[in-house]
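Below is how a single chain appears once it has passed through the pipeline. First comes the sequence as given, then the structure the pipeline wrote out for it. We keep one example in the README because the format questions we get most often are answered faster by looking than by reading.
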Amino acid sequence: MCFVAILVTGLALTTAVRPANAQAAPPTSAEKKSATKLVLPPAPETLLPDAFAGWKATTGPKSVSDPGDLDAANAVALQEYGFIGAATASYKRDGETLTMRALRFNDLSGAYGAYTLYRQNGWPKAEIGEGAASDKNRVLFWKGTTLVDATFSAVSPTSAGELRELAKRLPNPTGNRALTPPVLAFLPAASIDKQTTHYALGPAGYVASGGVLPPALAGFDRGSEVAMANYTLMSGSATLTIIDFPTPQMAQAAEKQIGDYLKAGSKAQPPWPKPLMDSDPRSLAVRSTGPLVAVVSGEAPPDESKKLLDSVYYSANLTSIPGSKESEAAKAGQLLLGIAELSLIGAVGAILLGFFLGGGRALYRLARGKPISSVYDEEFIHLDLRMDWVPPKAEAPEAHPKG
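Resulting structure:
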């Protein structure tokens, strides 16, 4: 017992006097193999390059995560469109300058909506990316989930081609992120000015895009989406607003609310926005179809406004699952018909197989100089059975003496 106590005490003292800064033993090879290796995801692609088409960045590219630092006036609208980040950069080439900013959004709808937010009505169309417009030395285009805003010190004939080269480097979204806003498909194509189309996902973007109604009537708090466009009709211009609600019931309730608001005129609360004030009151009309609510405003005559309104209709592409409508007798008849078809196929197959096998054997015998049939072949094996055996006659029974 004393020896054990002394041994324990010695081990304790040895542990106590071990230096505090003593390093641990290096891990063995087995421990190294059991260690889990962390694989970090690849770094996201930069929105703007350091150089392209002869342009070289002088400042940037600089990442921006707060939309307020990028555009304080439209920060809320950018958040409604799903802003997730941006990059800014300044370029120089042969004494000319180019400033650019690229905005990235959650999906294609957000990038397109922000494009319609910044693009003003009347800007000439340009063929860059998936949609572009220009205003003197400023060019705006979008591709996928990215919106690019470029300002040249001087626009040249090659400026559009240089931006097309940049657009090719932008990533393409996949899956649901690549879907266009469904509400745009309900804008009638006839007489539309596509460079006036706007798409809004929230009240800030709707107002900034020139919405004709108060934002409260557009139902953004209920998950609605809005598409707007100007139309050049025979006797004047008109603005068509289509609000896409989640359900037809919401659309019907909104139709009544908007109709009452338009009828109130100068007594309406809140007061009419400027686009409604500039419209002909006789041309204002509203109609719902499915989950859509269409509103016409502008200066076109009432009959043309009504025709434009009536050209909006909702058609849902629904896939129904058909149920079984066949009776038991019909099922039994189909079963018997199937059995008959199968029997007929088997019989035809047997006949064809017989012709193939029998005809092939006949041709083979004919090629060897023998008769087609083997009935008369000498080597034909047969059994010659004859009844040569005769059974013996039965003997008469012996007579037994009487007695």
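The first strand starts at residue 51 and ends at 52.

See the next section for the split statistics.
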